[in-house]
Amino acid sequence: MTHDRLIHPSRRSLLAWSGAGALTVAGVSAGTGTASAADHPTPGSALLVPSPRLDLNSASDNWIREKSLRDTTIMQSFGYDNANGHIYVAQVTQGGLKLAGESAAVSSADRNRHGDLTITKWDMSGNTLGYMYLRGFGHGMSIGVEPAGGKAYLWTEADGQEVPDPVHPDDPTKTTSRGRRLARFPFVNGQVLDSGSAGLTMYAPVAGATTYTASVDPVYGRLAIRFRDTDGVMVFQVHDLDLARLGIWSQPLASVREPRLTAVPGWPLTTYGDPFLQGYVAVGQYLYMLHGNSYGSVQKINGQDTVISAPGVGNTFITSVNLTTGSLDPAPPSPFKETVNPAYTAAAYTLDYREPEGLGVLVPDPAQPGVFSIGMGFASGVAGARVATIYGKAGLVQPS
Questions:
Q1: Which of 51, 174, 343, 391 is deepest in the core (most CB within 10 A)?
Q2: Could you give the residue ranges of the DSSP H alpha helices within the chain?
Q3: Is residue 33 part of a domain?
Q4: What is the mean pLDDT of residues 111-134?
């Protein structure tokens, strides 16, 4: 069920890590990369203690509806700067632009292939405050936002590598980009930043791994990363944010294989297909994943082309995973029912096109840092004039 009540989250400073505990690391000195540890709040606890869980079946409310970004391409992900009241949205750079250092305008196919991204800075109502261009970074499937005083550092994939487009896996002419490393850098309005440039710090957390993305847990002070390991398996890890900033990756708080929705008991494959992972966040001991496809998407099922995301209905699901076990929590029943986990959502179902794109963690009140909501992004509009929407869920289940 979708609710269209408009919410304007408060623009207050967030005491992001208050009450989360402190971490002491012997032998680690502060001050590497672009900022020292002294610039940041106390990091979260090193233990995945019991934490609140989002009620996946709580109402979805309209926070931001069909707002424009810097470019006209589809939003890929977004993240909240809860301390300063800003939202950062990532998208693949549109074709036809000539940026600084380029001799001519670059096509959309080349932007996608090279991994060129555009970051739009919004206020909490979706009004554009600034932008930044990233060349050679990747696809922008997830973005982490780390406040530091009055500014924000962004965590993204970097060192983009050309790969087959998962939407067109059998067409060798269709390619995209995925990052082989992670990067951290300050948002600088109007800047064109190249992967590997001075001003950003690069990380390779796991030897031989590729396809990196990241997301910041603003409640417990952690960094969730996703990558493809040397066996080709997609893995999620959670690290203390202070240690990640220092380049220390040997002490993950959690490491789990990515669950596949098609492996859920009773999952109706012929109805919803194999939905794409479109975003993720971690808060405390829980990982949340957003899956789905744009309206009218077709997949081959039992040898037949099948519409898996019917207009007005879609195949968008939000799932919670307990990071201490790697299992869906709450556990799904069999046969599949859409009222539990994974939870089907009809949020923003009246949008045209409607493709789910990204999750973000909103902490509305600094006096209650453990009370959070999760926003779900959706792209809509016609090709060449895409717009972005965010609906959110606020219901929480407290640990027993």
A1: 391
A2: 108-114, 241-245, 269-272
A3: no
A4: 98
